[in-house]
Every structure is written in structure tokens, then in C-alpha cells.
Amino acid sequence: MRPGAQTTEESAVVFRDPLWTAQTVPGYDVPRWFVLRARRHAERITGLDDTEAATFGRRARDLVAAVTEATGAPRPTRSSSARTARTSTP
Questions:
Q1: Residue 9, Cα to own-chain centre: how many angstroms?
Q2: What separation in angstroms does the CA of 25 have from each of 9, 22, 80?
Q3: Interatomic CA distance for residues 1 and 5, integer angstroms
Q4: Over the stretch 67-86, which tens digit does the pLDDT of each residue have?
């Protein structure tokens, strides 16, 4: 576990700031999958306040970049992303 990470029975916190927490959650234990959630309760994305909404994209980008760097996960290729998009469209 990296310095500053916290582990409880319910989750492993890998990042926390005043607005956001990134963590693993039991039941969603897929390698390199994390949950990014607001520290305060907000129902749906429309429940985020202006500051949370303004920082959400940056926090998501930073989390994905950190996981990619730490795990050495390859970035998806353009063709694989397009193939996924086509197969998930009804």
C-alpha cells in the first residue's frame, strides 16, 4: 500500500482532498478500478455544487493518470475504443 493510503474493512482510500475521495470498494474489486466520490452527500451528478462540478473532471483525469502510471496499463488504441463504442450502441 502506498504512503497515505488508508484501509478499512469497507474500502481502501487511495486519494482524499477536501472535496473528493478515490477508493476501492468491496464488490467492485476489479484491478485498476476505483470509485471517485464527493466527500459530501450529493444525489446524482446534478447534486454537485459549483466547486465540485468544476473540479470533477480534473480529479477523474488525475486519478486515471495515476493508476495508469502506477500499473503501467497501456492506453486504449483508437481502434479498440471505436470498436467498444460500436458494440455498446443498440
A1: 19
A2: 9, 10, 27
A3: 7
A4: 788 777 776 655 544 444 44
Residue pair 27/7 in contact (Cβ under 8 Å)? The answer is: no
27 φ, ψ (degrees, to nearest 5): 95, -20
Burial class (CB in 10 A: 0-12, 13-18, 19+), 86: exposed
Q: Nearest Cα to 23, choosing from 9, 13, 37?
A: 13
Closest residue by Cα to residue 13 from 42, 22, 43, 52 = 22
- Whole-model pTM: value is 0.62
C-alpha cell, 4 = 497515505
Residues belonging to the chain:
90
Phi, psi at residue 71, to the nearest 5°? -100, -15
